[in-house]
Specification:
Blueprint (H helix, E strand, L loop, with lengths): L1 H30 E7 L6 H14 L3 E4 L8 H11 L5 E4 L11 H7 L7 E5 L2 E5 L4 E4 L2 E4 L17 H13 L3 E6 L17 H13 L8 E6 L6 E5 L2 E5 L18 E6 L4 E5 L11 H4 L14 E4 L1
Helix pairs in contact: 2-3, 5-6
């Protein structure tokens, strides 16, 4: 009888230990999310392939491209998607302005199999929101980018529409997870000649502030925003929220091209409340001259994505 009792006790102990280990492992997996990010590839398949090769090695929970994968022409869009779709895991798209040089949003959303121009999804302990800032304001109406109709004064382009802002508010209010926002154009305040943060970005920032103000002092639900578009490696913190500009895969502009494809892998860790960025170090193909820089500030143009670690 004693042997039977000991056996039962041992069996129960092993079962509880196994379940506890599985629960702990599950919690740990949910707390740590790894993301592969690339932006502004602009129809350069070899640069996208370099990222895909690294993603296969790093095995992130998902990959995302922050827009301007192609110029929207069917042949170039399909060519880039053939490479993109080789990744066997989860993958997501953000609409960029240049995808809409030769296409409509409906065409790109269809080809890229996106759930919409803006949407959200969960991964681990985090909630991710993809926003669409590709609207022009004409005759008092917000209109979609389509077939290069957005080459107008910058105060009337790169906008987010009020309907989407309200959707964003309701979406983030519903989740109890930490929130990360992805967009092509930035909600940060950085503005140099040639770049264009979202002109009505304060609408989004007001939602962020409203949501975060509902939590105790020092706590944030919306913790970070990632954007591309400006071909800059830049970081800012506004009202406790981290704003990351993801450098272009190909460099800044003609004359400032870089040798290697740029991309980054981001580690979100809810255990120590950190965001770690592992970037790529490269170099300019040629030594840039003052003429190459033109009116752009040298101190903001880099041939790399800097490693960073921040807390939230």
């Amino acid at each position: 009888m004693l042997k039977v009792m000991n056996y039962l006790f041992l069996s129960v102990f092993i079962l509880i230990s196994t379940l506890s280990l599985k629960a702990a492992t599950g919690d740990e997996l949910a707390s740590v999310v790894k993301i592969g990010i690339i932006s502004d590839v602009h129809d350069q398949p070899e640069r996208l392939q370099a990222f895909m090769d690294k993603a296969m090695e790093e095995k992130p929970d998902f990959i995302i491209q922050l827009g301007d994968l192609s110029n929207g022409k069917p042949e170039s869009n399909v060519r880039m998607l053939e490479i993109w779709n080789t990744y066997p895991g989860r993958k997501y798209h953000v609409l960029g302005n240049h995808e809409l040089d030769y296409a409509t949003k409906e065409e790109i959303v269809g080809r890229q199999e996106m759930p919409g121009t803006y949407y959200s999804f969960d991964c681990g302990n985090y909630h991710f929101v993809v926003l669409d800032c590709n609207f022009i304001l004409k005759d008092g109406e917000y209109r979609d980018y389509a077939n290069a109709n957005y080459y107008i004064d910058k105060q009337f382009r790169d906008l987010i529409d009020p309907e989407q802002v309200e959707w964003f508010r309701q979406d983030v209010m519903r989740t109890d997870k930490k929130v990360i926002v992805f967009s092509h154009e930035t909600f940060d305040d950085i503005e140099i000649r040639g770049s264009n943060p979202v002109p009505n970005r304060l609408l989004v920032r007001e939602v962020i502030r409203e949501v975060n103000d509902r939590l105790p002092t020092g706590e944030h639900k919306i913790i970070a925003c990632f954007a591309g578009h400006d071909h800059l490696d830049h970081y800012n913190r506004i009202d406790g929220v981290h704003f990351f500009a993801v450098n272009s895969a190909l460099g800044f502009k003609k004359g400032l091209e870089i040798k290697d494809s740029l991309y980054e892998f981001v580690m979100l860790d809810d255990r120590d409340r950190t965001i770690r960025i592992q970037g790529v170090q490269s170099e300019f193909l040629n030594s840039p001259t003052d003429e190459d820089y033109g009116h752009y500030p040298k101190e903001l143009i880099f041939p790399f994505i800097q490693d960073r670690k921040v807390s939230y």
